[in-house]
Amino acid sequence: MSPVLRRALLTTVVVLIVGALPPAIPSTAGTDPAAFINNLGKQLRVVCSYPSMEQKLAGFRELFREDFDVPGLGRFVLGRFWRIFNPSEQQEFLGLFENFVVLTYSERLLEYGGPRVTGSRPDPDGAIVFSEITRASAPWAGHGPIKVDWRLSARDGTYKISDILIDGFSMAANGRSQLEGVVERNGGRAQAILAVMRQQIASASAR
């Protein structure tokens, strides 16, 4: 997996964690987007204080289902392969993606300190919030702060996080590129995506 995609997935899990508890500021489309992300950072610190890894994993999983635009991200990441998959395979992919993120990256995020919001602007589908993650709050982030932009979509009166840009690189676009590579290396078989993800999840679960 490329370093860019790894950093993107790590940040994705951050997004999931920080929404685990009911927000002090309602996460509605009418909420100021910068305040929405600031509030997520506060909740992250609470979730990371949960006493057991089982509780943390349960919180990550709940967040992925409730606060992230999982169907929209899944369709984008799979691209043309989404139409090739039958409904059962589509649902399996979304479940595998959820498990992959939760099992692979949860432990690394315990040292995360929260993003520092630097601004926001409207977006056709909602808003984009600009922030930074510093090395002090995330040792895996590398030297100096990295720019993290949060793309929020307004759906049914609430915000959903639909993409994250790490130093300008889209997590969703990089995920699509990685899956296209899997298919190319497996003779053009889209179903190879599911087999590869099953294997990666089994390896993560065995650790």
Short description:
By secondary structure, the chain is of the alpha+beta class. It has eight helices and five strands.
Describe the protein's architecture and organization.
With 207 residues, the chain is an alpha+beta fold. It contains 8 helices and 5 strands; from the N terminus they run H-H-H-H-H-H-E-E-E-E-E-H-H. The protein has helices at 3-18, 33-47, 53-66, 70-78, 80-84, 87-105, 171-185, 192-206, and strands spanning 116-123, 126-133, 146-155, 158-166, 169-170. Strand 1 and strand 2 (126-133) form a beta hairpin. Helix 1 (3-18) packs across helix 2 (33-47) and helix 4 packs across helix 7 (171-185). 36% of the residues are buried. The model is unreliable at 2-26 (pLDDT under 50).
Strand order across the largest sheet:
1-2-3-4-5
H/E series: HHHHHHEEEEEHH
Q: Sheet with the most strands?
A: 5 strands, antiparallel
Give the overall average pLDDT. 77
Radius of gyration: 17 Å
> How many DSSP H or I helices?
8
Low-confidence sequence ranges: 2-26
Beta-strand share of residues = 15-25%
Number of strands: 5
Q: Which fold name corresponds to the CATH topology?
A: Nuclear Transport Factor 2, Chain: A
CATH homologous superfamily title: Tgt2/MlaC
The N- to C-terminal Cα distance equals: 18 Å
Query: What is the 3D form?
Result: globular
Assigned CATH architecture: Roll
Class in CATH? Alpha Beta
Into which percent range does the helicity of residues fall? Answer: 40-55%
